[in-house]
Amino acid sequence: MRLLRLQRRLSQDVLADEAGVTQALVSAIERGLANPTVESLERLALVFGVGVVDLFQNPEIKD
After folding, report:
1. Domains and CATH numbers, the chain
2. Which of 1, 2, 15, 24 has its CA 20 to 30 A from that of 51?
3. Phi/psi of residue 45, each to 5°?
């Protein structure tokens, strides 16, 4: 998810705000310390414009 966020040039704060979750949750997910709900994953995927499954893949960062 961190790679998707960086690829789209979003801060954790902006991503969290747009997804309706906390910045702490975004940070914890990126560090592998959280077990997000399906609802949280759906909200995050919606912001990215991808499917939930895409949050579990490693996209390449393109400049």
Report:
1. 2-51 (1.10.260.40)
2. 24
3. -60, -40
The residue written with tokens 């309706």 in the block is 20
14-32 pLDDT, tens digit per residue, is 999 999 999 999 999 999 9
pTM, two decimals, is 0.85
Residues sharing a CB contact under 8 Å with residue 5, sequence separation 6 or more, in sequence order: 12, 15, 26, 30, 48
Task: Write the DSSP assignment of 24-63 as a string of letters.
Answer: HHHHHHHTT-----HHHHHHHHHHHTS-GGGGGS-PPP--
